[in-house]
């Protein structure tokens, strides 16, 4: 509902200005790439919440769902704005930077690698893909972020003019059946969308897997707390036992 309203508003000049004002966009949209960046930012609020649910963020899935389900369908757009405002406050930002040019400039920055985004984006461009697009009909975010948005980003940042060679990546590493590797424990959380692309069942004694029910992306890296799901504490004990067993092997 909210996404449909946004897409409809963006078809007119006045509606576009209204969207920019409602979501506190820093500068007016200058291109469709800016619109895609804007929508990608709104999607990112939900994706980050799910990926890091209950892992140190000031909000979790329940918070976001509660905000989006507040009121009736007619309140959906205002709820969308409230979520965006909340994330601006979390990051200490006064406005939403939806400039595609700024995204490209940040990824082309050769002096600041702290976030790892330039490196990660490079991997997606040449190996992994796995872009969060709106090309599928089985998602709630409309159609403003197509695959071409990301492939153009690869070209603009790194000079590539081709899609990631995912089939070659799977052939090289073995895909869901890794070849020529050993002493790996694949740890995933059931809430983490990435787990669908990982190994979630052990393959051999030296290729083991742990799927932690009720956790997200990085829960096993954090110190234990009294509110941890039961499977998390067990996984945190199991992981070092597996690794130390390999280290102790002759």
Q: H/E order of the elements? A: HHHHHHHHHEEH
User: How much is the average pLDDT?
Assistant: 93
What is the CA-based Rg, rounded?
A: 21 Å
Q: Please report the distance between the alpha carbons of the first and last residues.
A: 61 Å
- Given as residue ranges, the uncertain stretches (5+ residues, pLDDT < 50) are none
Per DSSP E runs of 2 or more residues, the count of β-strands stands at 2
Question: How would you characterize the overall build of this protein?
Answer:
It is globular and about 70 Å long. It folds into two domains: 2-158, Four Helix Bundle (Hemerythrin (Met), subunit A) (Up-down Bundle), CATH 1.20.120; 178-248, no CATH class. Helix 1 packs across helix 5. It has a two-stranded parallel ribbon. The mean pLDDT is 93. The protein has helices at residues 2-9, 13-22, 32-51, 61-68, 76-90, 100-107, 117-128, 147-158, 166-173, 230-248; strands spanning 184-189, 207-212. With 250 residues, it is mainly alpha-helical. Helix content is 48%, strand content 5%.
Task: Indicate the topology.
Layout: H1 2-9, H2 13-22, H3 32-51, H4 61-68, H5 76-90, H6 100-107, H7 117-128, H8 147-158, H9 166-173, E1 184-189, E2 207-212, H10 230-248
Parallel strand pairs: 1-2
In short, what is this structure?
Helix content is 48%, strand content 5%. It has 250 residues and is mostly helical.
Question: What tags apply to this protein structure?
Answer:
250 residues; mainly alpha; Four Helix Bundle (Hemerythrin (Met), subunit A); 2 domains
